[in-house]
Amino acid sequence: MTFPPSIPFPALASAREIAILRLVGRLGVAETPWIGRLLFRDVSLRSMQAMLTSLVDQHLLWRMEGRRQLVATKTPGKTIPRKGPYLYGLTADARALLGELGAEPRDGTLQRLIARDRRAPLPTLSSLDDDLARSAWCASVLDHARRTPMLAGVNLQAGCQIWNNADELVQTIGAVLILAFNPKGQQVTRPAWELPWLSGEALDPSWRLVRFALEADTGVANSATIMMQAQTYSRLSQNKTYQKLFGGPIKPVVLTPPGDRINTVAQRWQEAWPATPAMFTSVDSALHPDYGALWGSYAKLVQGGPCRAIPLEGLVSTVEKWAKLVAKWPYAGGWAGA
């Protein structure tokens, strides 16, 4: 197999390297810790850093330093700045490579991967706030969903665009994440770097699909913008657009900053779409300490007001039942960089 001269990559790419490119292209942007948790649980932190650096050097990933973090010292009330984790994204060269390798299904997935020209200026940190919030949520769902033997496959796309018949952009969804569960699934031992991406194949009719549409609210959108977003979801739900594109209805998940912002956003959604199935959570409540974003604290709106929402409602009803399902996952020991 030969590659275009613009792709300086060895002819024999490792399965883990391909897995990195496929994951990052779907997430749009990814922080080092999430790449580690998803793809490097079986090797050392140094090995992971070496592979990521190699991909950057070969212009298949772009990299930039993340936001600096304040770390507490032994002196009460004093903190010091520390470098944040690196951020990674896919380059156009890498997307072309995946096409040459036939690593993606022929259903448009390759074209939907988010990539940028390796010669283009890097994005600013402030422009990535909502992208990183979405990326972390999706990565956490992936990390924990793949631990149950019921997970048969998954689809993920950040920045999912919906066009009408007149080639007009109707909606850009922050991220669409689809989980396909086989209720009778048996434990499958996959390599630590392997995620069960769906490849356009026909799905077993007995499988249960959960379709999330994630939106990250960074606290700057006004009420009119929030209501317009909810109205778009309402309209496309009612005219069956999502059923045609994704095979069934989607469940919006709205992620907000900490504090009272969640109440404001939820109220605007209910005003715009009274029967909304959307779930609301904040970045400080979305992640369960043991079972990640699948079992964080979520609320939905009903006639009597907000009530608790369960992302896997109708499939797994309690976190205790989930704990039993994932108890035998072989890589539960954690990631070396955690």
Structure report:
- By secondary structure, the protein is of the alpha+beta class.
- It is 31% helix and 23% strand.
- It has ten helices and 13 strands.
- The protein has a seven-stranded mixed sheet, with helices on both faces.
- It starts with 14 loop residues before the first helix and ends in a 13-residue tail after the last helix.
Number of helices: 10
- Ranges where pLDDT stays below 50 over 5 or more residues in a row are 1-12
In round numbers, the mean pLDDT is 90
- One letter per element, helices H and strands E, the order comes to HEHHEEEEHHEHEEEHHEHEEEH
Helix/strand class: alpha+beta
Total count of strands? 13
Q: Please report which band the strand proportion falls in: under 5%, 5-15%, 15-25%, 25-35%, 35-45% or over 45%.
A: 15-25%
Main β-sheet, spatial strand arrangement: 7-8-9-10-11-12-13
Our Rg estimate from Cα atoms comes to: 20 Å
State the helicity in percent bands.
25-40%
* Shape category: globular
Largest sheet: 7 strands, mixed
Distance between the termini: 38 Å
